[in-house]
Amino acid sequence: MQSEQFQDVLQSIPVMSPEQITILHKTLSPPLDSYDKQEVSGQSRLLERLKYYFDQNPVCPHCHSESVKRWGVHAGHQRYRCKQCQRTFNALTKSPLAHLRVRDKLDQYLECMDGSTTLRPAAAKCGVSLNTSFHLRHRLMAVVESDAYGQLSGILEEDETFFRESHKGQRKLEVPARKRGGMSARKKLAGVQDGSAAPVKKIPVMVACDRNHHVVDAVLKHVCTEELTSHLSGRVQAGSTMCLDGHMSHDSLAEKLNVTVKTLVTNAGQYVKEGIFHIQTVNAYHSELKRWINGFFKGVATKYLSRYLGWKRYLKTREKTLTFSEESFLDQISIRWAKQHLV
Q: Distance between CA atoms of 267 and 294, rounded to whole angstroms?
């Protein structure tokens, strides 16, 4: 294969659907499978696969130059040196999996990334401490945090939901600790007026999805047209139909994204237009997301919210074709790694 054709294949990897990724993996040459089966000096299948992908087209993680050369082996990792910036690196440099100490536990921990295992059972299953379980989860979540699966198309829906600001796990709080459960809006307002309670900050989260389980989400600073456009630009196919509620920040999205907008005034009881246009799919996703984060995990720290959104987004894309499996997660991490180094 010529170099230009190979680059075209690599550039198409980031926008592949999960189904296409599975097909790609099945058609890969036998050497990749041999990497999966061998156990070289305690290395995990995941790390061996990442090194295999990197070796096919090494790119400097510091300056993104492709002009590199091999520079010896250290601790079982092939090292490279960039001819442009003169810095050395290996396949994991500047990735969330760099400097990982419990490599022999990584493959086993992948089985606990099915979205139905909390930290303590995962730690017990893998024979690691609670602190190590936490760090393994967050390293793996960081890999898929900003994954994208092509564009939203056809009929899509967009709406915002809100999560309470959380400082879960923080040792030194700058604000008084809040008891789980909160209070009603009426009691909260009364407490704020007499000084006995502080207002609860809400964190907006934007979710857009189409009818094919493709999801785009983001943690927002404010619900405004500029932020919504920045997260949706390039992620929505031109000519699609977008279903929105009557929030003022949605007024100019049609022009900015080149889509047809169907506005539903839910406050007036308008939930469906023309029998097919509604925002019930995205609202159902909101409910599922909140049950997962606030119910199953008992809340997550606001600073990690985007990671959990990415993890849930990955799990959601698998519902259409496959259930969660260690093999599919290995594929996705490898593809995410490839995209990261092509940017």
A: 26
Q: How far out from the chain centre does Cα 247 lie? A: 26
Q: How many CB atoms lie within 10 A of CB 157?
A: 26
Nearest CA to 245 among 283, 284, 210? 283
What does the block give as tokens for 168? 């879960």
* The architecture CATH gives domain 155-165+201-318: 2-Layer Sandwich (3.30)
Beta partners for residue 73, in sequence order:
78
Question: Which residue in 50, 107, 47, 58 sits closest to 80, CA to CA?
Answer: 58
pLDDT tens for the chain, 343 residues: list them: 555 666 666 666 656 665 666 666 555 544 444 444 444 445 677 778 778 878 878 889 899 888 999 999 887 788 999 999 999 998 888 877 788 888 788 888 988 888 889 999 999 999 999 999 999 999 888 887 877 666 899 999 999 999 999 988 888 877 766 666 656 555 555 555 555 555 678 999 999 999 888 899 999 999 999 999 999 998 999 899 999 998 888 888 888 999 999 998 887 788 899 999 999 999 999 999 999 999 999 999 999 999 999 999 888 876 655 556 666 666 666 655 555 554 4
Nearest to 89 by CA among 50, 66, 62: 62
Q: Where are the domains of the chain?
A: 3-144+324-342, 155-165+201-318
Q: Please give the full DSSP string across 202-243, using - where no structure is assigned.
A: EEEEEEEEETTS-EEEEE-SS--HHHHHHHHTTTB-TT-EEE
Distance CA 244, CA 282 (A): 10
Q: What SS3 class is residue 304?
A: helix
For residue 172 the two structure tokens come to 């030194």
